[in-house]
Amino acid sequence: MRVKICGITRREDAELAVELGAWAIGLIFHDPSPRKADLQTAAAIGAAFKRQVEVTGVFVNRELGEVAELADACSLTMLQLHGDEGPVYCDEIRRRTGLKIMKAARVRDAASLQALSAFRHVDYHLIDAHHPDLFGGTGATFDWELLRGRRSHVPIVLSGGLTPENVAEAIRVTQPLAVDTASGTEASPGVKDPAKLTAFFRAAEQASVAA
């Protein structure tokens, strides 16, 4: 089971995530987020780990040029688009950067999940919990059973309130390509808890083996 650790703000947390076997780490470039990455730190993390892990930049409704500049400055290898970006935007930012694209959706019902089917040419769909005002990082889960009716062949990255305690059940129900955690493995916003992080990887691995 692939694991993405999101909301990284410190190099030591990135190092631990990589040591534990992370598939991807997430650097958030969204000003309102309490997990926003400092540009200098993000650049250092990207340069250090881009050959070991998918260094993912998380963006919300940013201008194409800004995203391309940050992708280059921070050695990003994947872009996670967590706002209202449409399929044309996704195609254009891929053309400009050459990076993998993960399109996120905040799911509250079957219709919001179905809307992701328009994004057929992205590399991954990230499924997160819905919040009327926040773009991720809420610590809330959603009804995983909704994914049983999904028809798209784009691989799923499951997010939304995943913790060491519930990730095994989430994997069992949804069978995603990868799981993503931010608040569920923190000591405080933007600061990872090593014990929680280690427990999350252990639970995900055990669930994957069981599946």
Structure characterization notes:
The chain contains seven helices and ten strands. It starts with a strand and ends with a helix. An eight-stranded parallel β-barrel has the order 1-2-3-4-5-6-7-8, surrounded by five helices. The protein has a two-stranded antiparallel ribbon with strand order 9-10. Helix 1 runs parallel beside helix 2, helix 3 (about 65-75) packs parallel to helix 4 and helix 6 (about 165-175) runs parallel beside helix 7 (about 195-210). The mean pLDDT is about 90. Strand 3, helix 3 and strand 4 (about 80) form a beta-alpha-beta unit. The protein has about 210 residues and is α/β, with parallel strands linked by helices.
Quick description:
With 211 residues, the protein is an alpha/beta fold.
Number of helices: 7
* Major beta sheet, strand line-up: 1-2-3-4-5-6-7-8
Tertiary shape: globular
The proportion of strand residues reads: 15-25%
Oligomer: single chain
Low-confidence stretches: none
- Determine the structural class based on helices, strands and strand pairing: alpha/beta
Mean pLDDT, rounded to whole units? 92
By DSSP, the count of extended strands is 10
The helix content is: 25-40%
Distance between termini? 10 Å
Order of helices and strands: EHEHEHEHEHEEHEEEH
Largest beta-sheet details: 8 strands, parallel, barrel
Radius of gyration: 16 Å
